[in-house]
C-alpha cells in the first residue's frame, strides 16, 4: 500500500506542475482550447470531463473526436494550430505519438494518456520510461512513468479526471464519468469486477460523495430482457440454454418466478427482488455444476459481480449502470455520433439521450450482424501463431476493434483463444486498412504483447506508421497492398514473443 501511495503522490505532484504549465500558457490565448480525443467510450468520457471542467472555468473550448491520432492528423492539427495559436490537449491518445507531436506542433500542448509511450514495448522498460519522462514531463502525463499500469489501474478518462480535479476540486463530481470510461476499457477486472489501482481510489471518491452505489449482483446485463441477457451472455455459458432465449425463459419460469410485466414484456434483472435473484443464482450454480462438473465456488466467482450504479440516474435506465452507460457512449462514437455521447456524459438528458438510445440499438444490431456473418461464413483464417479476418463489406472500420474484442471474450469456438486475433477493415475513400488486434489475457501472461508486435511488424514491413496500444489490445493502419506481408510479420513477431518467454 505504501508503494502505491508513493507512486500516486509522485503523479499528483506532477499534475500540480502540469496545471501551472497549462494556466500559464492560456493567459493570452486567441481562441478556444482545442481538445482532441478518441472516439471510444473512454475517449468520449475524457473529452467530456475536460469540456465540463473548462466550461465551469468559463474557458472556451472545442472538442474534436478522432478515430486514431495518425501522422496525417497530427500534421493537419499542426497547420491549423499555427493559424489559431490555440492551446492543445490530447486525451486518451498522444503517448504513442508524442515524438511526432513534439517534432511537428509548435503551439503549447499537453498529453493526458494511459497507453504505452512511443518505443516502449512493455511496462518493464523502466530505463526507457524514465528517459521519456525526464524529457517530456513538462507537458506529458502518463501512468507508466510512475509504475502504474495504464491497461488496468487507470484509463484516459481517469487521467483527464485527475487533471480536472487539479483545476478545481469541485470537479470531483466527474469521478463517475472517469469510471464510465474505465469500464469502457474493461478495467473493472479485479475480484468480482471491482476496479483496482487509481480506478479504485476514484471509485471510493465517487462513493464517499454518494455518486455511486456498489452492489452485489448477477453477472448479466441489468437492462436486457433476462432470458436474452442469460442466453446471449458472452461470459457465462449454460449448455443447452446459451443461444436460445426461449429455452432460457422456460428455465426461469420453472423456478416459480413471474417473468412478465402486466403489458406482456419480459422483466430484466433490475425488475427482480433479492429473493428472486437468489433463486436464479442457486439454480444456475446447480445447473452448471451438473452439466459441466464444476465446483460451485468456481461458478460463484464468475457469476456474482460488483455492479456500480449511478445514484443520480433514473432506476432501470441505460445510464444507471456504468457498464451500460459506457456501452451507450461507445455506440455514439462508433456510429459517427460522438458529439451526442459527449453531450450525455456532460449532463444532457433530453434530445441527446433519446438519439443515443437509437444509436445504441443500431450499434448493437450491427455487432450482431457482424458476428453472425463471421460464424456463418467462417472467415477466420489461421496462421501458425495468429488468426485474422477481413471485414469486407460487412464490418466497417468503426466497429472492427469492437468485433475483435467480442471474439476474444466469446465463449464459443469461433476462434482459437490461444492465438491473438487481427481484424482489418477498408477505410472509405482511402487505400488503407484499419487493423485492430486483440489477445486473451491467458496468452498475454505467456508473453504476447500486441502493442510491441504491431510496432515491430510495421518496421519489418518497411512502413512508417504510428501504431500501438496495450499488450492485449493494439492497432494501426497500413496500405492495402501491404496486408499480406504485414500479417506474416505479425505471425513471426508473436512466435518470437512466445519463444522468448
Give a brief outline of the structure:
With 501 residues, the chain is α/β, with parallel strands linked by helices. 48% of the residues lie in helices and 13% in strands.
How many H/I helical runs?
Answer: 19
What coarse outline follows from CA principal-axis ratios?
Answer: globular
The separation of the N and C termini measures: 29 Å
- Structural classification: alpha/beta
The residue fraction in helices comes out at 40-55%
Would you kindly provide a written description of the structure presented here, covering whatever features stand out?
- It contains 19 helices and 13 strands.
- The strands form 3 sheets. Strands 8-9-10-11-13-12 form a 6-stranded mixed sheet, sandwiched between helices.
- The model has no long low-confidence stretch (mean pLDDT about 90).
- The chain is α/β, with parallel strands linked by helices.
- The two termini are about 30 Å apart.
- The chain has helices at about 1-25, 40-55, 70-85, 100-105, 125-135, 155-165, 175-185, 195-210, 225-230, 245-255, 275-290, 295-305, 320-335, 340-345, 350-375, 395-410, 440-445, 450-460, 485-500, and strands spanning about 35-40, 60-65, 90, 110, 140, 210-220, 305-310, 380, 385-390, 420-425, 430-440, 470, 475-480.
- It is globular and about 70 Å long.
- About 50% of the residues lie in helices and about 15% in strands.
- It folds into 3 domains: about 1-185, inorganic pyrophosphatase (n-terminal core) (Alpha-Beta Complex), CATH 3.90.1640.30; about 220-355, no CATH class; about 380-500, Diaminopimelate Epimerase, Chain A, domain 1.
- β12 and β13 (about 475-480) form a beta hairpin.
